[in-house]
Amino acid sequence: MKKFNLSKLIIIALIIIIAALSAIVISAKNFKSDKNPAAMTQVINDGTGFVDKVVAAPIHFVQDQANVISNLMDTYKQNENLKKQLSDLTDEKNKLAGAKSENKELKTALKLQETLTDYETTSANVITRNPASWNDTLIIDRGSKDGLQNNMLVMANGGIIGRVSQVNPTTAKVSLLSSSKGIENKIPVRLGATDSPSYGILTSYDSTQNTYLITQVTTTTKFENGSQVFTSGLGGGVGSVRDLLVGTVVGEKNATDGLGRQIYIKPASNLYDIRFVSVVKQMIGGK
Q1: In the chain, which ranges are continuous DSSP H helix?
Q2: What keywords are assigned to this protein (predicted)?
Q3: Paired residues of 199 in beta bridges
Q4: Average pLDDT of each block of 10 consecutive residues along the chain (287 residues)?
């Protein structure tokens, strides 16, 4: 095996460098004098140009791909920032909508309190309303320490919504009139003109029509649609308070058993969105 001769390799490299430098010098001189380069110089120039292209091609390709990746990363970051901004705007919009809704209910509750000046009432917040029993019950943050008792009528959004059905020291459960389980403690109501009223019993809620159902009407008077219905205060005991708004008449029909009429009442209150309530303890100076 032949021994590697380093000195020969150095000599060959020096000859190539000298030749290349000579070609460059001659080319530059010819360029300044506008003369055509020698044939050897042309060959060297062409070879150098070809080598530059071959070497530069992958470098340019890598640079182009790097630019593409950089642009993609910039676009991705911009999209992520835009998504976050959109999410923040959506959150703020929802918070604003919630605040507006709560403000509207507070105004309604305040207006209701202004109309209940003849009654002893306690205001309360709804603290629990289970989706599984949304139309049946809710929990408020007032209880026996605040003077609440079972069967007291509860109002919200302009009309009665139910009765207190369970009292704890600091909380109470309200059974809603919209319950699919029926109204356990029926509510006596008054219909028609105050000078010649008719009376009946609010017995249930029709979820298909979103109306209360009044039966056992004491007269055959025809009630106009839109006429208001109030509690009558009859019956005695806790919760027998008169002149609380129940709703308005929207229709009637004969009972299926043939024993009288059924009057359909549109609730005066929004039974779905309830956040603040007023518990009516009693009427000042009587029922």
Answers
A1: 6-32, 39-115
A2: Cell shape, Coiled coil
A3: 190
A4: 65 75 64 57 59 62 76 82 76 64 56 62 92 93 94 91 95 93 87 89 92 92 91 84 92 73 92 90 66
